Amino acid sequence: MLRLTSCFLKRGGAARAAQPCVRLSTGPQREHKTFYEFRTYCLRPDQNASFLKLTNEKIHLRTSHSQLIGYWSVEYGGLNQVFHIWEYESYAQRAAVRAALAQDDTWISEYISKATPMMTSQDNEVTYLVPWSNLQRAPQENGNPRLLMSVTQRTVSPASSCQ
CB-hemisphere CA count at 13 Å for 86? Predict the structure, then answer.
């Protein structure tokens, strides 16, 4: 089934016009199935290297809470961005992970408090695997995912790119 819905998002308060958005669904909503959170962070250009170094050193604090599927940075196309994908068995698991992270003093003091000022924006999407996908896990180093900083070209519309 292919279903197209539209909505309007209010951004920046009532003074601004509502921004249109469109959601495309190719089937019924999945409830209790594994899903993936695709996160995009836009970084301050002068903080890109520092952010990647910090993340490489502290990613184990985050992966102790849930499964990291992949982590990428970009050198061509939409610059100063990192992308990461996290696996969850349910929305309840994701809520529990987010609550645990909010209470993890080490995560907050050693990573979040340092990483957040390096970012200009964050975005996340919930995605599901298509039936023909062949998901492979990230390589491991000392029991932790090895972060691969890959060169990728991605076409990004001006409205969604980092400013």
Answer: 20
Instruction: Provide the 10 A C-beta neighbour count for residue 2.
Output: 7
Output the average pLDDT for the chain: 76
Domain 31-145 fold is Alpha-Beta Plaits (3.30.70)
Are 71 and 147 within 8 A, CB to CB? yes
Mean pLDDT of 25-50: 81
Question: pTM (2 decimals)?
Answer: 0.66
- Sorted by sequence, the CB contacts under 8 Å of residue 84 that are 6+ apart come out as 38, 39, 41, 68, 69, 70, 71, 72
**Tell me: the pLDDT tens digits for 120-138?**
999 999 988 777 777 666 6
- 75 backbone φψ class: left, alpha, beta (φ>0; ψ -120 to 50): alpha
Domain ranges of the chain: 31-145
Give the bridge partners for 87, in sequence order.
36, 67
